[in-house]
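Running co-folding for uracil.
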Amino acid sequence: MRRLDQLLANLGYCSRREARDWIADGRVTVRGEAADDCAQKAAPAEVRVDGEPLDHPDGLLLLLHKPIGLVCSHDLREGPNVYALLPARWRQRNPLVTSVGRLDKDTSGLLLLTDQSPLVHRLTSPKHKVPKLYRATVDRDLAPDLVPLFASGTLRLDGEDAPCAPAGLRLVTPREAEVTLTEGKYHQVRRMFAAGGATVLTLHRERFGPLALDDLAPGQWRELPLDTFE
Ligand code: URA
């Protein structure tokens, strides 16, 4: 049971101050009866606004095809972000809708967004070893001996104490490869190739655990059930 004003504010409808006006205007009902007190407590499933059930009261989990050029940070000083792609109400939720790990501004592909912080922690923890599949193109022919180097668990990147966990590398063409990581160090794919003497030209994440983009176009998202990873 949650206070009505808090519920509406946390789900991004309006401020708590505005919720008071919405309630006074009779826009909010609980079990079919117009609410008259913003401090009234109700179960989210019993509440309607303008006759409509509440928007995802239990949480959000989204699969986004991140386009190049957007950042995953909420800090607008870092540039336009992926959250601008979402409906305004979802951008105003508390807890915030945030990305599960990050993709660089210049990386495209599969990005999960959620307001469920335990899920973020679970999916980004190296302990859980969720495999992420990337496709990279590079500026020079890749030496086949990069495959055992990536797999070795001994590749240490500049500035990192721990070596990279064993990673899969499949050479698709001499300048294109698939990389599978179970962790997410800063700029990890770019830095791993740099350690092997190559510069990444394009980077795209194709899969996250069991999930793929399928035919989702850049900038589009689809909703996932909250229990997708249970
Ligand atoms: N590795 C990178 O270098 N960049 C990403 O965006 C993701 C993985």
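Result summary
Residues 2-53 form a domain with the Structural Genomics Hypothetical 15.5 Kd Protein In mrcA-pckA Intergenic Region; Chain A fold (CATH 3.10.290.10).
The pocket of uracil is lined by residues 103-104, 107, 187-190, 203 (CB under 6 Å).
Job closed.
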